[in-house]
Every structure is written in structure tokens, then in C-alpha cells.
Amino acid sequence: MQHVVPTVGSLVESCAKRITVLEDKLRADPEMLDLNEMETLCLDLGRAWGAVHHLNMVQSSSELRDAIEQVQPQVVELMANLSQSEPISKAYQSMAATLPAAQGENEVTRIVDSALRDAKLSGIFASPEDRERIKKLQMELSRLSHTFRSNVVASRGAWSHTVTDPKDLAGVPDHLLKGLAVNPEQWQEGPWKLDLTQSCMELVKYCQARPTRELLYRASIVVASTGEWDNSQGLVDILQRRQDLAQLLGYGNYADVSLASKSADSTATVESFLTALGHKAQGAARVELEELRALAQELDQLDDLKPWDTGYYAEKLSESLPRVSTFSYLSDLCWSRASKTKFKINSAEVQQYFPADHVMAVFFDFLTTLFGVRIQDATAELEPETLWDPHVRYFQVADADSNKPIASFFLDLYARPGAKSPGAWMDNCVDRSAHLKTVPVAHMVLNLQPPSGGTPTLMSLRDVETLFHEFGHALQHMLTTVAGINNIEWDVVELPSQFMENWVYHKPLLRRLTRHHESGKPMPESMIDSIVAARTFMSGSFTARQVFFSLLDLSLHVSPPTSAEEAVQRQQSMSEAFLARPLLPEDRFLLQFLHIFGGGYAAGYWSYKWAEVLAADAFGRFEEDGALAETAEGERKLEAIGREFRATILAQGGSQNPLRTFEDFRGRPVDYAAFYRQLNLDATQGQ
């Protein structure tokens, strides 16, 4: 950690000198702009700063966070100066004017257009006084976002609760108890330590002790809301400074700023899409909630279903779904528990069939079939000190036909409470560059429960979906034939990740992914049928919740609140409008909403749902063309269409408008039908 401040400081200084030299050259002759030179201008700083950011996400400490706070203003100021450079901006304008119109859109035009757009969003056309104000706001926002994220990590890591009475964890599966045990050798006797990691929160679905469920739930909804890690004022400050920034840039609000780098044409278009989707999901969500209430009354004479009960009774309900391939939320689901033909979907039992090492091996083999890439573990080729944790693994990716190396990635699977940020993500370590002759390197990060007490890491079905999702991002980064994913509009960047989730429910692959960690037997066919049939279980509630998050995000950035109290009030009123059951008044989830306050999704959380539309339609081509059939012809089509997806969606990256790339693959503009079909929502419902 002691090297961060001097190293980054030195790199900032050397990069600033190179910028000055370049500006002098371009003032004399704007046509001297060289895109290769721009690529390398601050490359060393970018890689070093990226490494520091990565370590803060996966192995954070108070020392590292302090070091980042010291040097972050220097980095942000330098990047602002670069974006606001008049000589460089004028050189890009000159280059844009000389590009042949007949050449059309390509990688070069996209780079130039992106650079000019970024310059505009950095205030290049503002007055000198306003540019300084914009730069100051950007520095403040960077600091505030860093603090917001750090507070969430620290607050989550600080909470724990020790359980000594086994009755308080009755019903919790053995593999979870082993991971929670203070002494893994005595996991049956306890004590057990609860925390706010994703794997621990899983026990809410199984724990019969209602007070334990309530304890965990209440702790999870007030993260970063009190004491030294309180994000209340930070949230208000972020929103107000974003609004100030938008006005200085000539926009009415920050939502309009966000849309400038997306394919959607207006906030009204986004709101229309979300509102229509929300109306379609609300009826389904209400029926789902009534089902849970009825089940809670039937099983436990529970008259007042609370939020900490929802996951538990949803798990119980999933154990008695009707044996059907599809069902309508507004008809069959109402009668699901009355059905005489039932099968069990017990999440704890399902998890026994997903040992992580087996899932990874089968998944990587499937990628060879689908995209023609071969993935091999190369951890042994690295020096141990190269890895930030002993459990991290390193893989090399090669083209399956030519065996030519094309990329590599690091895989960090396990949770580290207090040190590692929650959730899962992919980020780029090295970009592809023809000029530098570099191939992509990615970081793949999850938060699984590590092996414990002789039990391997077992993945829930949601964990498997998350793996496929994040690897979709990694594939976009690693298989592009152009410069990474940076020029892809933000509302389309989730397309490959959402697309990959569909394969979890492809029966031939699902059969191969499963192997009981003790017996080695594959998952019974009846259980596989159950999983596929229940894919849309509770999806009305999930969709309504995502719409609520998205519309709240937009609302906060269109009309920012002036106090944390006002923000919470808006959260509450919008939850009443869009959720089947409103949030608890004490819920402070906004104070840990990292996607929009500590990440890159400000006024853009809705892009997840829009990308689902694209992903469902893309996957629909495999369905329509017979590529999912379990025949030799189906296998042939699977490989052919998969390689076409690689050659278009993945390979072309940001070299052209991604909606045009989508049309290249699909043969037509996007259609919503597959999206609504996947959600089991009638395309006309709610209209």
C-alpha cells in the first residue's frame, strides 16, 4: 500500500508532461493527431490506476482506501484536463471533417465520435470559468463515489451476529452451516457467525426461526445508514453535484447527460418502456404475493407476511409447483397449490448438484462448442505474488480452430467479508490493441462461499446464472476484434451478459452442468424439468422490483432531492406505486445502491431491462432456427449460429452502433415478443 501514492503520483506527473508536449504539437498542426499516440498517452497511468481500483474492490483495507483518497484528486484532475484540452479536441474535429463520408461508420469514426462526445461532456465548449467548475465537480463526484462505496463495504463488513442455539438456525442446509461455523470441525454444535455476505443471506430462504430471518433482513436494509459509515449526506451531495454538472454542460438534468452515451433517444422513451413493463408485471406480482400469504397461513397459521418471510415461503412454494412446461401468472399460478401433480424444487437440494469446479469445467467446454474458444487453467505459470489472494486462478483463452492465444482472465470466486465488495463483476485489466500487440486480459469476480468442512464450494442456481452473466461481459471484452468494450453504448453493454443467462436453462447443457458433489450422479431429469419450468417463478415480483429501481434512479436524477429524508420519502412513495408490497419505512437500500452511486449506472439502471429485450430476441434466433434441438443437425446449427454471434455481437464491439450490429446478427430490428414470452407476461397485458 505504501507504493500507491508515490507510484501513481509519479505516473500522473509524467502523463501530464506528455499531454503538454502533444498539445504544443497540435497547436502547430492539428493534423498531427495520431490515434496510436492517443492510445498510449496515459496508458501506464491507466493500468496502474486500474490495478489500484481493482485491489480496492477485491482486497480493500483502510490503508488502501486512505491512499486512494490522497491520489484520486490528482488522477481525476489530469483526466479532466485531458478531456478539456482544446488542442486535442480541435484536432479530433479536424480529423472528423477529413474522414470520407462514403467510408461510413467504422472503428475510426466511432473512436473520433466518442472522443468528441466525451469532450463535450467534460465541458470543452463551456467558458474557462465553467470548465474549472466542471473539473472541480468531477473531482468531488469521484471522491464522493469512492467514499460511498467504501462506506458500504465497511458497514457490511462490520456487522456480525453469533448464534449459539441450533434452534435459531433450524432448517438451514448443512453446507451453509459448515460455512457459518466458527469452528468448521464442530459445525453441527456451533457457534455460528452470521454476516451480510451473499452466501449467508441465502439462509433466509431456509431458516425456520422467524426471529433469525428478521434479524438478518433488518440488518441488510440499513447498511451504511448510521454512524461513521452513514451515506445519507453523501447521497444528497452526489445527486446535487450531478445536477450542477448537468446544468454547466447545458443539460436540464443528469438523466439527459447519462442518455448522451446511450442509444435511447430521450428520458420520456425510457420512462414509457419502464412504465409499460411495470404495469404488465404488477398483476403477476400481486398474485404471487397472495400465493405466499395463503401458503404462510396454511403451513404456519401466519396472518401477517413480513418481508423477511417472503424468501422463506417462496422457497416452500417452489417445492410444490405444478408440473407444466409454462404457466400464466394470472391463471395457472392461482391454482398451483391445488394441482394434484407436483414436483419439488428445493434450492438447497439443487445446490448439491452444482459443485463450482465441475460447473466451471463444463461451462468452459460449452464455450468451445458455442463460440469456438478453448479455455485452459494457467495458474501454475504465474508467480504466487502475482495473485492478490491464494485462491485466485488464471486462465488462458485460445481460438479452438487455430489454437492462437486470444485473451486471458483471472477468476476470483470467494467472498472475503470486509475486504471484498459485494456482488459480482467483470472489469478489464488489459485491452486489445493492434498497435501495442496486446490481447485482452479480464478480471472475473464472484462472491461464493469458500469450501469448508470437507464440502466443496456449491453454487445456487442464481450463482450459476451470475457466472454466465459476468462471463458474457468477459467474452465481450476478450473476443472483440477491436478496442475493448469502451465504445459500446451503455444501455447495450449488458446484451452479451443477459444473453448468456439463457443457456443456464438449456436442458442439454443443464444436464451436463449438474453432478452431485458426493455421489457424482447427475441431477434427476424430473428436477431438471422442474428448474426449466419454474424459470419464471416469482418473475412478476422480480420484474416489478427492477422497474421500481430503474424509475427511482431516473426520478432522482431528473429531479434530485434536497435531503436524505426527501430521497427516502420518494423511495417509499414509488415503492407503493410499483411494488405489490411497499418497502418498510425504515428501509434505506438507497444508501447502499452501488450501481448508481458507486458505479457507472447513474440514471442508467434501466439499461439492464432494455438489454434483456435484446438478449431474449438474440436467443430467439437459436430457438427459431432449430439450434436448440438435441440432434446432430441442432448441434451443427448451434455451432454455426454461435460463431455468427461471436463474429457480430462479440467481435465488432464498439466499431459501429450496437443496434446495427444486433440487426446484422438478427436480420431485422429488435422485437419485444421473445422478451415478454421469457417473462411469461402477455405482450398486451397492462396496456
TrEMBL record:
Residues 10-127 form the Oligopeptidase A N-terminal domain. It holds the Pfam family TOP_N. SUPFAM superfamilies: Metalloproteases ('zincins'), catalytic domain. One of its GO terms (biological process) is proteolysis. It comes from the Eukaryota. This is oligopeptidase A. Belongs to the peptidase M3 family. Residues 204-323, 338-680 form the Peptidase M3A/M3B catalytic domain. Binds 1 zinc ion. Keywords: Hydrolase, Metal-binding, Metalloprotease, Protease, Zinc. GO terms for cellular component: cytosol. The lineage of its organism: Eukaryota, Choanoflagellata, Craspedida, Salpingoecidae, Monosiga. Its cofactor is Zn(2+). It catalyses: Hydrolysis of oligopeptides, with broad specificity. Gly or Ala commonly occur as P1 or P1' residues, but more distant residues are also important, as is shown by the fact that Z-Gly-Pro-Gly-|-Gly-Pro-Ala is cleaved, but not Z-(Gly)(5). Its EC number is 3.4.24.70. The keyword Hydrolase applies. It comes from Monosiga brevicollis (Choanoflagellate).
